[in-house]
Amino acid sequence: MARSDVQLMLDVKAGDEQSFALLLHRYRSPLVNFLYRMVRNREQAEDLAQEVFLRVYRAREDYVPSAKFTTWLFRIATNLALNSVRDNRYQRMEISLDAPVTADAEDGGEKTMDVAEKHPNIEQHLIEKARSKMIRHAIEKLPEKQRAAVLLHKYQELDYGEISKILQCSESALKSLLFRAYETLRVELAPLVAQQLKQ
Amino acid sequence: MSCARMEGKILGYVDGRLKESERLEVEKHLGSCAACRLRANEFRAVSGLLDELPVIEPSAAFDLRVHARVAAEPVKQSWWAWFAPSPRVAFAASMLLLATVWLGLRPPDSSLSATDIDKINQDMPVLENYDVISDFAPLTELPPPLQADESTQQNQQM
Ligand SMILES: [Zn+2]
Question: Does the structural domain A1-95 have CATH classification 1.10.1740.10?
Answer without folding.
Answer: yes
